[in-house]
Amino acid sequence: MNAPPPTPTGTARRGAHAAVRHDSAVGHVTGRAVYLDDMPLPPNALEAALVLSTHPHARLRGIDLSAALAVPGVVAAITAGDIPGRNDIGPILRNEPALADGLAEYAGHPVAAVAAETLEAAREGAARVVVDYEPLPTVLTVEEALEHKLYVAPPQVMTRGDPDAALAAAPIRLSGEVRCGGQDHFYLEGQIAIAIPGEDRDMQVYSSTQHPTEVQHGVAHLLGLPFNQVTVEVRRMGGAFGGKESQATIIAGIAAVLAAKSGRPVKLRLARDDDMLATGKRHPFLIRYDAGIDAKGRILALDMTLAADAGNIADLTPPVVTRALCHVDNCYWLPHVRVTGLACKTHKVSNTAFRGFGGPQGMLAIEALVDDVARHLRLPADTVRARNFYGIERDNVTPYGMAVEDNIIARVTGELARAVDLPGWRAAVDAFNATSPVVRKGLATVPVKFGISFNLPTLNQAGALVHVYTDGSVHLNHGGTEMGQGLFVKVAQVVAEAFSIDVSMIRISATSTGKVPNTSATAASSGSDLNGMAALNAAETIRGRMAEVMAERFAVPVGEIVFDDGRVFARNESLAFGELAQLCWSRRVSLSSTGFYRTPKIHWDAATCTGRPFFYFTYGAAAAEVAIDTLTGELRVLRAELLQDCGASLNPAIDLGQIEGAFVQGIGWLTSEELWWDPSGALRTHGPSTYKIPGSRDVPPVFNARLLADAPNREATVFRSKAVGEPPLMLALSVWLAIRDAVASVGPVGAKVDLDAPATPTRVLAAVERVRGR
Ligand code: MTE
Ligand code: HPA
Ligand code: MOS
After folding, report:
1. Are the CB atoms for 723 and 522 separated by under 8 Å?
2. Fewer beta carbons below 10 Å: N end or C end of the chain?
C-alpha cells in the first residue's frame, strides 16, 4: 500500500486541463448516443403535429377540429381553450401563450395541435383543422415598427459623458447605417419533447431543452399544477445554440397538454420546415450611428441606435438588447456615448437567444463604424483599432461603468499579428490584387472582448449533486445541460480533479429537475463556470468527510491527508480511493452531497444600464482572407487564423472544437444564411434547400485555431478557466470585414463601403457596383 499504482491505462490521470475527448464522441459518430427521438416509447404513446397560422396577423374567429378528429388514428386535438391552466410560457414577461389564443401574430404561429396513433395520422389530422382567419393589418419590418413606435419592451438607453456636446465639438463627424440579418439555429436535432402522464396528474417530460426548469414551470402553468408534479429530464441535445433556451418550452408545453388531455404519452417532434416556421431565431438589427472622431481616428463621441426585430412578443429580447448595448464598445474606449436599444414589434416569429445573445450585433455595429472611420481617414483599420483600445490604467471603463480590469487586448492582437506575419500577409493580398482585376482579395482582423455572466445577476447560480459509491465510482449530476459543447466532460474533469481520480471513474447522468432544482438555462457560455463550481463544491464536501475518516483511521492530522492519483495518503499509509469510500460507509459517513455556487462581484441596475454585469471578460482575435468575384459577387473564405483566450483551459480539445465551430457558425450568419420573408409575411427560407448553412467546403482551406497560452483567469473561476461557447462566433466578423476590404479594393481610395450582413453574392455585387460609383 505504498507507491501509488499506475493508472489503468498507464497514462497520466486525467482531470482538469486534460484534452479528454467528449464523453459521447464515439456515440455521436456511431449513432449510439441516444437522442429523444431514439428513445423507445411506451406502447400506448401518441405522436403529435402542430397546426400553424398561415396569416402573419389575424383574429382567430374559430378553429374547427372535427375533421381532424374524424381522421382514423387521431386521438386528441387541442386549441388554446383546451389548456387546463394558464396559457402563458413567457420567460420574462407575461402573456406569451403556448398556443395562439384568439389572435395569430405571425405566419407559423401554432394555433392547434393534434395527437394520433401514428405520425402520419397526426399530420393528416393537423392538415384538416379548419381555421377561420380575419386578417388584420401587419407590420413586417423594423422601419415600420420604428415609425409607429411599436415595441415589445421599453427602450433601453446607456449613456456616459455628454455625447451631444462631444459630437458638436468633434473635428470630424461620420454617420451611417448598417443592418445585420437573423439566423436560424439549424440544430441537427429539431425541437422535440415526450410527455408521459403519471399518477395524480403528475407529468414526466423528456425535452430537448437548454432550460429544464423553464420547461418545468411552463408545463406546470399550462396544466395548472405545482412545480413538484412536473419533472423534466434531458440527457443531451443534438445542438441548441440558444434555440432551445426558451423555445423548447413551447414544444414541451403543447406535448404535455396533449398528454394530459389524452391520458397517454405524447411525442411532439417538429419537421424541419415547421421548426423553422414556428420557432424563434437570432434577432436582425438595424443600426444607425453618428460619431465624432479626430484626425487620428479616435472616437470622441458616439450616438448609436440599435433596433432589434423582436418579432411578435418579447421572449428574451430585452436581455438580448441589453447584451447588445453592453458589447457596442467591443475593445474600444468610448468617452462620450449614448446607445439606445429598441425592441421592435413585428408580425414575425419571435426572435430569441442565439450564440452571442445580442453581443455579435453590438460588435458588428462598432466594427462597421471603425471600418468606416479607417476608410474615411485612409488609415489601416488596425491602426484605428489600436488607437481606440481600452487603456490599462486610464480610459478603461465601459459605457456601463464597469472597469476593464483584465485587459489583454494588446497582448492577444499582438500575438496573433506576429504568429501570422500580418504585414507579409497584407503585402501578398495587395500584390494579388495588383494583377487581378476580376477576382479580388480582402484581408481583415478583428479583436473581441466578451463579457461572461448572464446579464441578469440572479441567473448566475447553479447546483450539483454528487454521490460516491463504495467501489469508488462517482455519480455526477448538475443543473447544466449537454448540447454537444462538452459541458458534461468538463464538469466530470473538475470532479475528477477534486478527488484526484481519473475522469473515467465519474459517471455523467442526465439533467433532471428532480435531482437539482431551480436551475438557470445552460447559456451565456457560463455552463462550466457555474456548474463546474457547484460540482466542485459538492465534491469538496465529500472529500472533506473522507479525509476526516482517513485521518482518524491512521491517527494523522486531517491537514496531512493527500488525495493523489486514485489513492489517499496518510503519511506512509495509503488506501485506494474506493477502499476509503468503503471505509466511510462502514463508519456511517455520508458519501453524497449537493453543491451550490453563486457568481461573486456582479450587479446590474437595469434602470440606468450601469453596473458590473460580468464577472470577467474573455478575449480573442482573428484574421481572415477572402476572395470575391466582382462579376458575380461570389465569395470564398481562403484562410482564417484565430487566437482565443480560454484562461487555463479546462479541456483544450473541447475548447478548440468550440472555437472552430463557433467561427464557422459565424461565417454562416455573416455570409450565406439569409432569412427571407415574402411581402405577405411568410418565411420562404424554411429548409436546407433555400437556407444555406455553411457546408464542409465553406470551411476555410487554411484554418488555424489557437488557444492563448499561459493566461489563467485573474478571477477565481473553476481552476482559472474561462468560458468559450459563444465568444469565438464573433471572430467571424473578420470575414465580413475582409469582404468589405475586398469590395473597397475595386473603388477609389477612401470610398465608403456599403455592405450589410449577410454578405450574400447579391449584396456583395451591389456593394461592388456602388463603390465603383455605378
Ligand atoms: N456547442 C455545440 N456543439 N452545440 C450547441 O448547441 N451552444 C452554444 C455554445 N456551444 C452550442 C455549443 C451556446 S449558444 C452556448 S451559450 C454555450 O455553448 C452553452 O454551453 P456552455 O455554457 O457550457 O459553454
Ligand atoms: N445569455 C443568455 N441567456 C440569457 C442572458 C444572457 O446573457 N441573460 C438572460 N438570459
Ligand atoms: Mo447561448 S445564446 O447563451 O444559449
Report:
1. no
2. C
Q: Cβ of 231: how many Cβ atoms within 10 Å?
A: 20
> For the chain, what is the largest distance between any 2 Cα atoms, rounded to a whole number of angstroms?
88
Using CB atoms within 10 Å of the CB of residue 14, give its burial: 0 to 12 exposed, 13 to 18 middle, 19+ buried. buried
- In the numeric block, which cell numbers belong to residue 474? 462517482
Which of 462, 490, 721 has its CA nearest to residue 616? 721
Minimal CA–CA distance to 398: which of 615, 730, 159, 169? 159
Span 299-322, average pLDDT: 98
For a pocket test of ligand 2, which of 361, 454, 460 has the largest count of ligand atoms closer than 8 A to its C-beta?
454
Q: Which residues line ligand 2 at a C-beta cut-off of 6 Å?
A: 245, 316, 319, 323, 353, 357, 454-456, 459, 521, 523-524
**Out of 552, 573, 726, 769, which one is annotated catalytic?**
726
Ligand 1 pocket check for 239: Cβ under 6 Å: yes
Neighbours of 187 (CB within 10 A): 19
Work out the burial of residue 631: count CB atoms within 10 Å of its CB; fewer than 13 is exposed, 13-18 middle, 19 or more buried. exposed
Residue 423, Cβ density class (10 Å: 0-12 exposed, 13-18 middle, ≥19 buried): exposed
Q: How far apart are CA 474 and CA 160, in angstroms?
A: 51
Distance between CA atoms of residues 722 and 59, nearest Å: 49
pLDDT (average), residues 88-106: 96
The pick from 211, 483, 654, 724 for probing ligand 1's pocket by mutation, whose C-beta has the most ligand atoms within 8 angstroms, reads 483
Q: Residue 284, preceding bond cis, omega within 30 degrees?
A: no
Least distant ligand from the CA of 356: 3
308, 332 contact by CB (below 8 A): no
CA of 353 to the centre of ligand 3 (A): 6
pLDDT given at position 774: 74
To the nearest 10°, the Cα dihedral for 258, 261, 266, 270? -10
Q: How far is CA 86 from CA 196, 217, 416, 525, in A?
A: 20, 11, 54, 32
Using left for φ > 0, alpha for ψ between -120 and 50, and beta otherwise, residue 656 falls in: alpha
Which atom of ligand 3 has the smallest separation from the CA of 355? 2
The 8 Å CB, 24+ separation contacts for 84-89 are 84/222, 84/223, 84/224, 84/257, 84/260, 85/220, 85/221, 85/222, 85/223, 85/224, 85/225, 86/221, 86/222, 86/224, 87/222, 88/221, 89/218, 89/221, 89/222, 89/246, 89/249, 89/250, 89/253
Contact (CB, 8 A) for 447 and 519: no
Q: Which atom of ligand 2 is nearest to the CA of 245?
A: 3
For the CA of 455, the nearest ligand: 2
Q: What separation in Å is there between the alpha carbon of 138 and the centre of ligand 3?
A: 30
Tens digits of per-residue pLDDT, 513-543?
Answer: 999 999 999 999 999 999 999 999 999 999 9
Q: Which helix (H) or strand (E) holds 598?
A: strand 592-598
- The values of phi and psi at residue 369, to 5°, are -65, -45
CA distance 114 to 51: 8
Ligand 2: centre distance to CA 354 (Å) = 10
Does ligand 3 come within 6 angstroms of the Cβ of 450? no
d(CA 538, CA 567): 19
Residues counted in the chain: 774
List pLDDT tens digits, range 700-726: 999 999 999 999 999 999 999 999 999
Of 523, 448, 460, 527, residue with least CA distance to 727: 448
Q: Which residue among 282, 316, 450, 530 has the greatest number of ligand 2 atoms within 8 angstroms of its CB, and so is best to mutate?
A: 316
- The number of CA neighbours under 13 Å toward the Cβ of 416 is 30
The 10 Å CB-count burial string (b at 16+, else e) for 535-553 is: bbbbbbbbbebbbebbbeb
Residue type, 160: R
Instruction: Specify whether 540 is catalytic.
Output: no
Q: List the grid coordinates of 641.
A: 487564423
Mean pLDDT of 745-757: 96
